[in-house]
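Hello forum,

I keep getting stuck at the same step: I have a sequence, I want structure tokens, and every attempt I make locally crashes halfway through. Rather than fight my setup again tonight, could one of you with a working pipeline run this one for me? It's a single chain of 225 residues.
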Amino acid sequence: LGELGQSITQHLGLIVQAMHTFSSEENSREAELTQQLSDMQSKLDEMEKLAEIAQHAIEEQRKKAMHDALTGLPNRESYQQRLEQEAHRIGRYGGKLSLMVCDVDLFKRINDTYGHLAGDKVLKIIAKSLQNNLRDTDFIARFGGEEFVALMPETSAEEAKLVAEKLRKKIESSPFNFKKEPVQITVSFGISQFGQDESVDDVFSRADKALYQAKDNGRNQVQLG
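Reply #2:
Ran it on my machine without issues. Output:
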């Protein structure tokens, strides 16, 4: 019995030692796994931050690509996208939509007389006036050169003409001096309202013809197309 007891004690000792060894190894493995998980989480957080920075950079580049650098207004590409959306909206749900095209009168003369810095300043003044005097629901863009366009939802051509007249008078009376010399700024407008099943090209063509009519009639006026 003594020998049996001694043998059992030895075996129990070996078992306990094995259990301690296993427990120690298990704790070591758990610590290693915990560290690995922590490292992975740190890398994941870092990747998320980098992805956020990249997304922000992409958004900034997209914004720059869709906006005019000089005036800060949406550019022609942005206007084309909005035009399609608005045309689709009224085609599906009905309603009114008017297009306003405006062009700075005698802009080449301003550039030739006072230089391109004066011309740039004039364009900024026109852009600011459009932003300040049109509704938030209206979409304003620099179409190119000295020409601007505005999409006016739920607005008839006659209503748009009243708005354009107020704009025309405000711009005409805007005090503008370049190198202490007063410079007269005026703008001509052409306006058309979207008709049923009318293409966007036809609507723009009518507004553009109305603009040229305003120019031919002496400038600084609003014409409907």
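The chain is about 65% helix and 15% strand. If your local run keeps crashing, start a new thread with the error log.
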